[in-house]
Structure to design on (745 residues):
C-alpha cells in the first residue's frame, strides 16, 4: 500500500485541508501497464513532443499546459487525453474550458495568476461535465520561451465518498493529533519553500520540536552517484563535527539500511563501524534512529536523529520522511526538467530556449560592452554522410568542450546542429580580442576539427540582436571562403556561381560605366561615379538591378566591388599620365565592408596602380546602421585614416538617421534623388534640402545632389550652396571611351 496525503485550501474559508489516501501499489502497477498498452491509441503522433510532454506523460493524474492569455491548450499527458477520450490532434486549438467543462466562456474560478507567480495554487473543484471531484494544482512555468500554466487535476471522488463512511472515522480522528497537524503544516511549508535546502529546514524544525534530538541530519546520495553526503541538519548540543559526519556517510554507504532502525547504544554499531562507534562514545551519544527516505526508484536517502530527549514513536518521523523524500524527488525532477528545457542534451551547453530567455532579459544599460563570437563546424554534413552521425556528434562535443574550457564563466549556446554562440559582457576590446585569439590558437592545434568564426565587439549601442546577427554574417562569409578553397566543393552550389562570375569578369562581360559630376557654380567636371553594368550579347547592356541582388544573396558582391575598384584605378593611372587628376567614387556593399581582409585587398589594388588615395571616394549607404554598424564604422575609419574619402550615399531615403554622421567622419554626403526631385514643387522638401546642406557646410562635409534633371532643381541647389550635382542634366552613365571623349579633352 502507498500512503498519500493531499493538501488543499478550502475555497470558502481558506482553511488548509488534508486527505489521507491508501492506494494499492499492485493495482497501480496494473493500471500503469494498461496505460502503456494504450499509449499508441491515446497519443497522436502529430502531437507536440518535448521534454515537458515526456515529463507530463509520466504523471498518472491528468496534467496539461495552457496558454494563460488565451486559455488555449498547448499539450496534455496521456491521462488527460484518455480521460477526455480524445487525441492530441482533436484537442489542438481548443480552449481548456471547452475541453474540460464544455463551456463557451472561461470558468469563474479560474485563478488570476500574476506573471511572476511561482507558488503552486491548490483548490478543490467539482467538474459537473466529467462528473468528478478534483484537487486542482497549478502554477506558471517557463516552457520553450513562453509563460504557460501547468495544471494537475487529481481525482478525489472516491476518497471523498470513503471519508463519508463510518469505517474511516478513526483515520479522520487521527488527523486532529499533534503529529499529523505538524505534518500538514510542514508539507505546506515545504511546498512553498524556495529551494530544497529551505524545504529540509522546514522538516528539521518539525522533527526537532517533536523529538528534541541532540543532533539531526538529512543524508542524501551524492550528485555523482557515489556514496552519501550530509546536506542539512540541526545541532542542539554542540557541534556534531565533520569527522563523525564522514563516518556516518561511510556507514550508510556500506550498510544502506532499507527499513527504519533504532540503534540502542554505541556497542550495537561496533561490528559495523569502529570509527562511528568511537564517535558515539567520545560524544556520549546513547542512541541513534535511522529512517530511510525513497528519493527515487531504488535510491534511498536517510533521516538520522541522535539522542532523542522525547522518546516518541517513530511513526511521525517515518511519515514525514516519506514526504521529504517525495519533495526532494519532485524538486530533483523539476531541476532535471528545467535543465532539459534550457540545455542541449548532447553537449550540456545552453540551448536555443535558454538563448531566447537570455535575449528577453538582456538590458544593454546594465552592460558596458557586449561581444559575440559565432562558431560553426565546417564539413559537418559531409562527416555525417560519410562516417555517420556518431562521428558528427563527436565533433560537436569536441568543440563544445573546447568552448567550455575557454569560456567557463560566459554564456555559451548551441543554437542549432553546428552553430555555437558565445556572449561576453563587460569586457574591454583588448580582453575580448585576447580571448578570441586564445580560442583560435587552440582550434588551430586541434586536428580534425575545422571551424568558421565570426566575432563582433561593441561598447556603443550594445544591441544584442544587431551584434549577434553581424557575428553570424561574418561567420558565414568565412565559411564561404573556406569552401571556396576546398577542391571537392568547387563544382557545387555557391562555388560554381563564383566560378561563373569570375569567368564573366575575365571575358569582360562586366563593364564599368561612368556618370559625371559637375560643380554647380561653374559647370566644370568635378569627378565621376563608377557604376557596374553587365553586357549580354543578345540583350545588350543590363542594369545592375537585374543581378546585384543575387550576388548579394550569395555573398559574391565583394568580387564585383573589387573589380570596379581595379577598373577605376586602371583608368585613373592612365588619366594621371595625361595630366588629368579626377576624383572617382565607387560603391562598396555592406557585405564587402564586413569582409575580414577588405582593407588589405583594397590597399593591394591601389598600390598596384600607384593611385592617390585622396582621389578615391568610397560610397556607403545609410543602411549600414541597420546591421553590423560597429564593425563597418571601424573599417571606414581605417580607410579614412589611410587617406581615402568616405561618402554617405542615398541620404534622404525612407527615414534618414542623422546619428550616423557622428559615428563616421564623412567627407561627402549625397542627397538622394527623391529629395532633389521634390525640391521644386514641395516647400517642405526644399527646406529640408537647404537645412541639410547648411548642416553639412558647418561640418565641412561636401554635398552632392543626385538625380538633377531640370534647370530649376539646379538653381535651387545652387542657391542652397550645394557644391556638386550629378544626374541626367549632365550626362547618363556612359562607357569609358565616351566619358573620355565628352569630359576629358
Amino acid at each position: 500500500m502507498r500512503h498519500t496525503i493531499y493538501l488543499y485550501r478550502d475555497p470558502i474559508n481558506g482553511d488548509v485541508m488534508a486527505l489521507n489516501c491508501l492506494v494499492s501499489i499492485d493495482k497501480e502497477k496494473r493500471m500503469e501497464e494498461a496505460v502503456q498498452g494504450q499509449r499508441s491509441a491515446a497519443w497522436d503522433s502529430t502531437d507536440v513532443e518535448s521534454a515537458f510532454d515526456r515529463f507530463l506523460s509520466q504523471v498518472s493524474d491528468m496534467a496539461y499546459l495552457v496558454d494563460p492569455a488565451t486559455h488555449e491548450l498547448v499539450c496534455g499527458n496521456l491521462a488527460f487525453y484518455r480521460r477526455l477520450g480524445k487525441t492530441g490532434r482533436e484537442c489542438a486549438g481548443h480552449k481548456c474550458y471547452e475541453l474540460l467543462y464544455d463551456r463557451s466562456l472561461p470558468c469563474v474560478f479560474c485563478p488570476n495568476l500574476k506573471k511572476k507567480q511561482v507558488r503552486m495554487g491548490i483548490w478543490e473543484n467539482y467538474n459537473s461535465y466529467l462528473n468528478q471531484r478534483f484537487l486542482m494544482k497549478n502554477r506558471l512555468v517557463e516552457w520553450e520561451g513562453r509563460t504557460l500554466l501547468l495544471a494537475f487535476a487529481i481525482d478525489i471522488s472516491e476518497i471523498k465518498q470513503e471519508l463519508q463512511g463510518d469505517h474511516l472515522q478513526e483515520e479522520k480522528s487521527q488527523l486532529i493529533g499533534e503529529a499529523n497537524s505538524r505534518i500538514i503544516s510542514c508539507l505546506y511549508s515545504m511546498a512553498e519553500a524556495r529551494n530544497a535546502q529551505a524545504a529540509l529546514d522546514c522538516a528539521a524544525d518539525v522533527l526537532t520540536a517533536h523529538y528534541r534530538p541532540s543532533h539531526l541530519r538529512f543524508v542524501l546520495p551524492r550528485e555523482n552517484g557515489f556514496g552519501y553526503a550530509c546536506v542539512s541538519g540541526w545541532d542542539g548540543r554542540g557541534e556534531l563535527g565533520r569527522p563523525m559526519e564522514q563516518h556516518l556517510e561511510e556507514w550508510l554507504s556500506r550498510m544502506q539500511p532499507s527499513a527504519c532502525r533504532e540503534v540502542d547504544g554505541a556497542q550495537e554499531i561496533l561490528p559495523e563501524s569502529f570509527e562511528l562507534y568511537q564517535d558515539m562514545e567520545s560524544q556520549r551519544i546513547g542512541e541513534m534512529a535511522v529512517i530511510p527516505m525513497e528519493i527515487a526508484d531504488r535510491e534511498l536517502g536517510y533521516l538520522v536523529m541522535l539522542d532523542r530527549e522525547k522518546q516518541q514513536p517513530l511513526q511521525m518521523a517515518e511519515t514525514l520522511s516519506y514526504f521529504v523524500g517525495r519533495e526532494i524527488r519532485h524538486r530533483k525532477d523539476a531541476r532535471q526538467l528545467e535543465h532539459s528545457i534550457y540545455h542541449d542534451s548532447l553537449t550540456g551547453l545552453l540551448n536555443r530556449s535558454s538563448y531566447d530567455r537570455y535575449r528577453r532579459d538582456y538590458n544593454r544599460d546594465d552592460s558596458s560592452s557586449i561581444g559575440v563570437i559565432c562558431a560553426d563546424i565546417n564539413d559537418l554534413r559531409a562527416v555525417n554522410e560519410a562516417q555517420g552521425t556518431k562521428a558528427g556528434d563527436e565533433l560537436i562535443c569536441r568543440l563544445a568542450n573546447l568552448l567550455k574550457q575557454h569560456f567557463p564563466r560566459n554564456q555559451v549556446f548551441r543554437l542549432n546542429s553546428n552553430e555555437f554562440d558565445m556572449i561576453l559582457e563587460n569586457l574591454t576590446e583588448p580582453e575580448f580580442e585576447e580571448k578570441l585569439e586564445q580560442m583560435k590558437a587552440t582550434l588551430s592545434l586541434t586536428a580534425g576539427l575545422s571551424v568558421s568564426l565570426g566575432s563582433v565587439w561593441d561598447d556603443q549601442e550594445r544591441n544584442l540582436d544587431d551584434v549577434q546577427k553581424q557575428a553570424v554574417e561574418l561567420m558565414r562569409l568565412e565559411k564561404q571562403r573556406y569552401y571556396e578553397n576546398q577542391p571537392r566543393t568547387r563544382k557545387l552550389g555557391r562555388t560554381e556561381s563564383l566560378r561563373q562570375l569570375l569567368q564573366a569578369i575575365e571575358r569582360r562581360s562586366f563593364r564599368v560605366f561612368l556618370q559625371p559630376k559637375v560643380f554647380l557654380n561653374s559647370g566644370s567636371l568635378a569627378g565621376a561615379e563608377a557604376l557596374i553594368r553587365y553586357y549580354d550579347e543578345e540583350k545588350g547592356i543590363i542594369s545592375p538591378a537585374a543581378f546585384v541582388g543575387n550576388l548579394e544573396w550569395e555573398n559574391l558582391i565583394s568580387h564585383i566591388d573589387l573589380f570596379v575598384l581595379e577598373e577605376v584605378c586602371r583608368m585613373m593611372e592612365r588619366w594621371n599620365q595625361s595630366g588629368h587628376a579626377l576624383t572617382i567614387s565607387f560603391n562598396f556593399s555592406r557585405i564587402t565592408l564586413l569582409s575580414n581582409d577588405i582593407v588589405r585587398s583594397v590597399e593591394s589594388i591601389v598600390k598596384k596602380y600607384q593611385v592617390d588615395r585622396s582621389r578615391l571616394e568610397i560610397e556607403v549607404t545609410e543602411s549600414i546602421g541597420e546591421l553590423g554598424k560597429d564593425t563597418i564604422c571601424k573599417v571606414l575609419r581605417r580607410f579614412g585614416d589611410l587617406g581615402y574619402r568616405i561618402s554617405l550615399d542615398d541620404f534622404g531615403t525612407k527615414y534618414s538617421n542623422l546619428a550616423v554622421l557622428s559615428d563616421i567622419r564623412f567627407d561627402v554626403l549625397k542627397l538622394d534623388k527623391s529629395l532633389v526631385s521634390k525640391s521644386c514643387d514641395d516647400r517642405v522638401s526644399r527646406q529640408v534640402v537647404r537645412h541639410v546642406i547648411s548642416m553639412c557646410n558647418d561640418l565641412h562635409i561636401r554635398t552632392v545632389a543626385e538625380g538633377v534633371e531640370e534647370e530649376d532643381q539646379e538653381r535651387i541647389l545652387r542657391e542652397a550652396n550645394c557644391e556638386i550635382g550629378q544626374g541626367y542634366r549632365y550626362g547618363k552613365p556612359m562607357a569609358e571611351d565616351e566619358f573620355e571623349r565628352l569630359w576629358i579633352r
